Amino acid sequence: MRFLVLALLGMAIAIRASFFAISVTHLPITHDESVMFLQAKWLHNGSHPAGAFPWLMAATPYEAPIESYLMALYYPLLPHTAFGARIQGFIFGLLVVLASLAIYRKMDRLRTVWPGLLLFLFPSAYFMELQIGSMPHTNSILLWCCAAALLFVIASDSSGRRRYLCLGGAGFFAGFAFSDQMMTLSFVMALLFAVCVGRNRRDTLPSLGAFLPGLLVGLMPFLIGYFKYPGAHAAVAGISIKQAQHMWRALFSDTLPGALGIAPKLNPDFHHSYSIGPAWLSPVFGYFYAALLLIAIGLCTYCLVKRVISEKWPRLELNEVFVAASLAALVMFAFSVRSQAISQRYLLLLVWCFPFLLG
Residue 45 pLDDT more than 60? Predict the structure, then answer.
């Protein structure tokens, strides 16, 4: 079994490497990648044109330039090409694969969770494009931060100082993920609830006492940008009930199926799609996902009620975090004023969670 997993992992890495090779040889650097690269240069040289430390990404004033912070550490080693702009995202994309495999091992035996494992190793083409191809600069790091936060929560299943250090690490990576992209709020909320309820009633306050300081440190890039530049995040932070009324149908008939690999966009936020089947396939697949999520919610609710009866406390299991994060991601997408039918990249976190629902 171990040899088979290693062979599949090697194939998965090879496919991602081929996506990356095609990306850096055929796709020009995007606007966001150029800005990220320039900010890394300014940070490394200590001479930002604005004369102040960049707490927000230039021309995208609702994101902290986390990628630029990291890239500035080794900027002189990078060529001024698409390879130099994307290699960091590619490396973090591989780290996401390894971290997700570690999460699968903690969920159950690999013999049991193999459907989800295969789907993650060989995901939708759109997921691969977002994570490795044309826009990898933010997507890979935010997924890695989410995976790292979850691994720290898993490692906190111990006692004493190690537990609280791990919970602090989980909080830091959860906050860092939100500072990178606000779309991770659904995952951060699910993780925060899991930590809040802890293992029992007496564990709640100590767990929060360890998690929240780490979360606050991870949120510092976002909080400083939020208070230093009031209104910068208004373009993406609003919600609209009227928007939700129009988005639900498009969400399941077009946006979600495309993000999961059925008729994905040629490029993020483009109108043109790949056509891999009849027109009815997309809505059928979208409502299949909805049914699958409802079944998962029902099963998790049943198990949670049994756990509350037997343990007298609503402790969450690992798979229930992914179910809660998926449901929250759908609701947030539908109500966000930023969402459009073509905004499949805003469902990246939901696509990452999908294989874990099957596992």
Answer: yes
